[in-house]
Amino acid sequence: QVRLMESGGGSVQAGGSLRLSCAAFGFSLTDTSMNWFRQAPEKEREWVSSITRSGIITYANSVKGRFTISRDNAKNTLYLQMNSLKTEDTAVYYCGGSGYWGRGTQVTVSS
Fold this sequence. Notes:
Elements: E1 3-7, E2 10-13, E3 18-25, E4 34-39, E5 46-51, E6 57-59, E7 67-72, E8 77-82, E9 91-97, E10 100-101, E11 105-110
Parallel strand pairs: 2-11
Antiparallel strand pairs: 1-3, 3-8, 4-5, 4-9, 5-6, 7-8, 9-10, 9-11
C-alpha cells in the first residue's frame, strides 16, 4: 500500500528552524520526483521544492537560500530543512510524488 507520512512540524519563532520528514511506504523515492508543497489558511496550495529521480533540485523563490530538500535513499525518506523561518512560512506542508500525497504537517511561525 502506497503511503506518505509527514512529520516534524511544530511551532517556532521567526528566525528559527524546523526539519520536516516524509516517510514513503510502498514505493521507492528514487523511482519518482518528489515535491514539497504548502498551503496557508485561505490560500492556494503552493509549490515549495522538488527533487528529481536523478537528484536535480529546485526551489520556489520565496524559500531559496533558506530551505533545503534532501532524500535518504536507505531510509526512503524525504526531508525539508527549513532555516530562517518567517511568519509567512506558516502553512500545512505536504510531500507528494507519483500522484500520491501525505496528510500534511502544520508549521506555525510566530513573530
